[in-house]
Amino acid sequence: MNISLLLAANSIAFGGLLFLLSAGFSLIFGLMRIPNLTHGSLFMLGAYFGVSLIALGLGFWPAAIVAAFGVAVFGGLVERLLLRRLPGAELAQVLVTLGLSFMIADFSLMWWGGDPISIDTPRALRGATFVAGLGFPTYRIAVIVIAVIVAAALWALLDWTRLGAMIRAGVDDPEMARIVGIRVSRLFTIVFSLGAGLAGFAGVIGGPILSVYPGLDQDMLPLALVVVILGGSGSLIGSFIGSFVVAFLYNFGQAMLPELAYVVLFLPMLVVLVVRPEGLFGRAAP
Amino acid sequence: MRRLALAFGLLVLATLPFWVGNSYYTNIASQILLYAVFALGLNVLVGYAGLVSLGHAGLFGIAAYTGALLINSGAGHLLAILGALGVTLLAAAAFAMLSLRGTGLGFVMITVALGQIVWGVAYRWISITNGDNGVSIATRPAPFGLTLATAPGFYWASLVVFLVSLGAIAVFAASPFGISLRGTRDQPRRMNALGYHVWMIRFLAFLFSGLWSGVAGMLFLYYNQFVSPQSVALTSSAEVLLMVIAGGTGTLLGPFAGAALVVIMKNVASAYIERWNFVLGAIFVAIVIFMPEGLVPGSLRFWRWTLTRLRPRRPAAVAAPVRAPLPNREGGA
Amino acid sequence: MTALEVQGLDKSFGGLRVTAAVDLAVAPGERHLIIGPNGAGKTTLFNLITGELKPDRGSVRLFERDITRVPSRRRAHLGLARTYQIITLFPGETLMHNIVLSLLGLSRLRWSPVLRLDHQTALLDGARAALARVGLDHLADRPLAQTAYGERRRIEIAMALAQNPKVLLLDEPFAGLSIDERRDVQQLLAAIPRDVTIVMIEHDMDVALDFAERITVLHFGEVVVEGTRAEVVAHPRTREIYLGE
Known about the structure:
The structure holds three protein chains of three kinds. By secondary structure, chain A is mainly α.
């Protein structure tokens, strides 16, 4: 019973982390209509940036912000220099993001080596907090809080700012948005940067829990993919709820059915894709 | 003239182990041939049907694992091969029925999910697949008493399989079915109105494509005498897709050229460059952006362009090839 | 017996009723014209008849046979053929290849993965004949990319004629053509024998009226006027729709 409770608590924290990862993925997917296969690598890159920045003497939180910024800039460049050369060719764009993910993964291996690196939990958040007599790691509670804050901030961005309105318009109907005068291509760069930055930030935040290691990108990308496919692309609420659903599926799946861990993860995604292909990727086959 | 070139090429290939000298290079040639079969099979779907799959390593791996498990449980090689191919065809049918629910990007993502499920089983269902440790087999087959244990022996077996696959796919491509398949790639709506059963055509093409992936998977198993989850990973599906795209989807020999390129780079490059995946990714990105019709046609185009620049008075005699092999809008109706 | 009959056909997309209780009856050998302003639902009606779209209500009959539930790919085998408003040919191929695909669609050969298509002389001869019907057999081996727009419009029609249809649906066959090209297509259509029933959507009144025996006027998805050419031309509602209300 205690184990289930612990698993549940961990799932909630992991769900928060997944939300930070998937929110960006969802926005990119919703607006640009492409599953950004580089997203896992951006998460990992952010974590590695965080490691280096902390090693240079920066504190945990400044490192997280700077790393996020760095990954955001990188993302912007990727969109501007590579993806923008393939307007409307979504499949080609996806292949480019795939190729990039290999490049980033290998580069990281070269630069930071093959051993897992852990990021120390920030001093103020070490130890456990006791809720109803049960102890939970304070840091994990902090992750949940951060996720909620970021969710609120994104929601405010989307609902109350002009940029947010433009993003929502672009997600709903890119053609119409263009006609109305929205500079959709500039919006793409902004959203891709934002998504990348969020992923990078999530990478550092996740550092104390997951560490950073080669293959982290391959572990995280499928999760983001499943979250967005289950929760709907471009939907903030969908990503939020989806993140927790996937976190629970992942943790409990690993614990109860270790041999089918990945099947448990990808099967819902497959089901959604097969049952409702129109909802996400355009029209169903004739 | 073409016949002469083909005969010459055949002669070169048949005598390769002799003039290459070293068994290291003979082995590389065997690898090229087995990946060429894989790429040719994938090209049936990507090039002829216009359906991009990022899950074909799943079928490749299902064949290799099934073969390995059958051999290790005592089955003879013939039974193992037939069993593996049979299971692969069933898997291909399942893959096809699920992925054909989507078109274009939807199709791709479903194949990704399917490939990942197969990988997940290979990686985690340790009691069957031995997980990350992989499965080894002790021997290679000895058809008609000829040994495949030596490098030249295996090379010739691979050459025979490659030529059979090349011939089969060439016949397929020139047949009414092959041509209607290409029709469904270009105008699925019209094909439907002309009386073709577009879904069934795609389904059967998927089976045919899966068959050759399975054949390649068995060749791979016999070559390495080992199979591991790495062979089923997304990177493996991406690699074979790169071979198809790099070589050019419009021709029969394109996938062969692509396979040669990737295998040589992988083996030779890793002697000089530590990180093969980085190069793989970079080539992928470069080709998709700058030469989407493939390295072979793209290089030809580049060559013609330089020629017309050098001789400005001569008009370009041949029109540039159509630049549209990567289905960029949704591949279906 | 009617060649093509549509009864109570209804289709909505979300809140928009694109086809509203449409009735249509075309006699064998008739030349029927469907006109109406943009957005009237003419092409949607064609798509419903060919089966590309499923109606919400109503029926489609081909020579008295109810084909409402017959999949669109089978309707070609029952004698229904159509052309498209936007030219829908096979780029990167020769004219011969295009027409061969049309003929192949109705032949059992299309399932064969082993025969050589370019050895099927009967099929190839048929394709050449189909091209000759539209006066383009001299361009048989020309790649499509090297043909003029007017020639492609004729190939569109040739593709459909090659299917030896009993009912031919033409969607704006004169769109974008010059005066000479229009005359070519007019002659082409006039030469089609009476065992083919033709239903045409057209915008260009001069050409279309010449051709039509009976006319149906669609407006906002509904049939508003229907009858012989003379009746429709004289009808006050027709004038209203075309000259504004």
